[in-house]
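Sample pair:
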Amino acid sequence: MRSVDEFKPLHGEVAEWRRYLHRNPELDYLVHNTARFVTEKLASFGINHIETGIAETGIVAVIQGGGGEGPTIGLRADMDALPIREASGKPWSSEIPGKMHACGHDGHTAMLLGAAKHLAGTRNFKGSVALIFQPAEEGALGGQRMVEEGIMDRFGISQVFGMHNMPGMDIGKFGICDGPILAALDEFDLAVVGKGGHAAMPHQTIDPIMIAGHVIVGLQSLVSRGTDALQSLVISITKLHAGDAYNIVPERVEMAGTVRTLSPALRDFAEGRILACAESIARAFGGDVELNYRRHDPITMNRTEGTELAVKAASGIVGAASVDAKIKPLMGSEDFAYMLEARPGAFIFMGNGPSAPLHNPSYDFDDEALPYGIGYWVNLVETALAS
């Protein structure tokens, strides 16, 4: 096992890469400059098996170990930014108006590049490591597309691992758990249909705004009264539009939201009961509903063997006392879940210190965390693929 001190000499160089990426954020699949930067760095490390254009702008680079034949494990970093105007005030703030790395993907990419440089120089492992640089994590399902385009079979990946920074967790600490670590994400659009009319004569209308209010309360009752209190179900209404005039009761109300669950059975329950609940309430008042329900990210599910490998690798960097192996699952979601559906492995959190929250205009990845992430990746490879 290697300690974090072995990776501190890389800190300055990797921080420069990270800050370059931070100044030049790109969205979704349009990470062309980021992909070019990553590809050039990988080639400069002497890595000669680099495949580009996967899921449009994704990259997989393979490093062959020096210890002989063995399996291949995958390490994944996401590359895309968010459509947010930055307010961090840092010297390396985004130079692209309305776009910023508000989730730390610049740090994730830089850390995997730092690990790639070390691994390509030492090759102290058997088998191979596949470095996966993924576009479009932020809602556009780049992880799913890379799996559908066959990266697991094409590169012979037997296990796959991911990592994400965590604001509020001290730098030098890691958190993970066996089983579900992040929730499944579903999205829905729900229209309440009534009968419009004059606001002074509501008795001649079927008021969809009033019905929508009851529907919102009813959906929250599915959480508080329809599910076991020890299970996790989150239903959030995040969009609401109704009417455009003071004196008109509109014909319909448009709302939208998300559903988060940690079990397949609860996911099925939510999908079925949201329609039944909304439909029953609306019809009781003479209206109706239209529902478009879409399943998005599945549950991010850690497997026991992958979790144990991740804990061992992180403990080697920071000591067992700084690795929480039983953190509570979070209700956020990750499209890395598609990779964990395709292959066993694990997803781990690493501390980003007292930074602003993720997806916040003031957020910034803390460069002091870089050696810890690099060291984690190296330890993971050298543990899983020990010569």
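The mean pLDDT is 97.
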